[in-house]
Amino acid sequence: MPVRIPDDLPAAGILESENIFVMSETRAANQDIRPMRVLILNLMPNKIETETQLLRLLGNTPLQVGVDLLRIHDKESKHTSVDHMNTFYRDFEDVRHNNYDGLIITGAPLGQIDFEDVVYWDHIKEIIDWSQKHVTSVLFLCWAAHAGLFHLYGINRGLLAQKRSGVFNHVRASEPHPLLRGFDDEFYAPHSRFAEINIEDIRRHSEVEILAESPEAGAYIVLSRDSRNLFVMGHPEYQKGTLNDEYLRDLSQGLNPNIPINYYRNDDPSQDQIARWHSHGSLLVSNWLNYYVYQLTPYDLSDMSKMTPWESKKNT
């Protein structure tokens, strides 16, 4: 089934050229199907690039998904036009009385700033708190995963001496878990961040569990015990060239970055990049939408009290 997006969203043409099934809102309105309603809080500077990456993953599921795009503030974006933001993005006041099947909060280029020093930290906390009553399941990505674990459970991160950048091997949890259905015992995923949560701090917390981890990059997939909040420390949405773009950007800014690990052929930036994570990235989002959103959410979103209890689905 397709991802349902506004008629003129720039991502539509890109996704259709890649044979990703998308459907305009006009066409979807003529179908007698209730699509999953997913809200995306996009904190990344290049909004269109991130929209397209996430819509690729949402468009590769068997469910029809309607998407609303949310911005954290109405200040002018340096990397995205005012017309695009005003046309396709909504402010929190516009959606705070809505309920959603899912919420995705993206990463942000804030890895070296204390949470309390982030200019919109209070707003982030407000949206996270709101989501716990108005959203069936929340997917936190990279910086947002660290922010969510800190705000909801008090698990803090530490800064790394050098940016963690590359494609790392991960090991899945040995016990059966719906989120990991179809996963290989070992799989790859990209990371790009300046901070990391000590994996033992996560293990010690009774309200969360680690579902996948990397010997080099630490915890990757962390799920709250009530299954409402999913924290992914890396970037399953990244495309083949994204780490290369970031590496070249950091070089141009004189940051002397390390070469992303296990990414270029022969670890040589002059050679091709190797994408090793797309299949598991798509599977992760598909499993999340199916088992933690679609299977639990009420048909009538106005009554979240009818949501299937978490515990009844936890071990199915």
UniProtKB/TrEMBL annotation:
Organism from which the protein derives: Shewanella aestuarii
Reactions accelerated catalytically: L-homoserine + succinyl-CoA = O-succinyl-L-homoserine + CoA
Binding site for substrate: K163, S192, R249
Extent of the signal sequence: none
Keywords: Acyltransferase, Amino-acid biosynthesis, Cytoplasm, Methionine biosynthesis, Transferase
Site (Important for acyl-CoA specificity): G111
HAMAP family: MetA_acyltransf (MF_00295)
GO-annotated molecular function: homoserine O-succinyltransferase activity
Domain of life the protein comes from: Bacteria
Localization per record: Cytoplasm
Name of the gene this protein is made from: metA
Protein name according to UniProt: Homoserine O-succinyltransferase
